[in-house]
Prior knowledge:
Blueprint: E1 11-13, E2 19-24, E3 35-41, E4 46-50, E5 54-62, E6 65-69, E7 72-76, E8 81-84, E9 89-94, E10 98-106, E11 114-116, E12 128-131, E13 138-144, E14 153-160, E15 165-166, E16 171-172, E17 177-183, E18 192-196, E19 205-209, E20 213-217, E21 224-226, E22 233-240, E23 252-253
Amino acid sequence: MRDKSHPSQWKYESPEESGWHEVITPDNSACKLTWVYRLNLPKGKTHQVIKPDMELNGAVVAGKVVLLYGSNEYELDKCDSFFLPGGDKVQIKAHQDSVLFFGGSLNEGKGHFFTRKYDLSLPPGDIHQIHGQPPYKREVFMTLAQQDEASRLICGITVGEEGKWTSWPPHQHTKDLEEVYCFFDIPGPRAAFHYSSRKAGEFEHIHAVSTGDCVVIPEGYHPTCGMPGVKSTYFWIMAAHHPDSRRYDLAVNDPHFG
Length: 258
């Protein structure tokens, strides 16, 4: 039986078969209020999404889809995203073979449906951010920023530089937020490496991760690094333990490295 509390058990492989898949839940992981779903939708197929008790942030990590929300259509390309409040429904149609990851958490009646185009030409600010400096410089694009109205979720896409670090210095936000990284654009056998530790100054476990792998971060420190030629690229999902901690500025650096 999986010891959900130990970092060696924090990696989950998401299914590649067509359809809607539940990947991570509070029942099968050490996370208490984060759900992760994967939708694999072949070209021309449709899928309806509705979760009455859960808010969702969905990101297209491969392909191209059209959303039907009410009487409106929205075209989403790779790395575009949308927010779906609890109880709302959306129909997704694939214009190409497509993959979407969804982060979910508790619905407390906050927020409204919106879509967001992935646009790295935006000047640095609330949505497009540049973090760190070489060798741990990375671009962060907020698919659901703390300035966006929502109940518990903050989500985004991080892209590191080839062979370099992301989420460095090692940091933790254990008392405020839990997190999941959903990796993409890293076709095997190439890999990035996700370091997990509940202890400052230590790396308890290292996971090799490629496209489709997800790593939960219920607590502790969690830097990543790409192998040579690999950009550590992932859709990240943070869920706040309390509405007041739905903030992006609560990380505490490891004093041994920060």
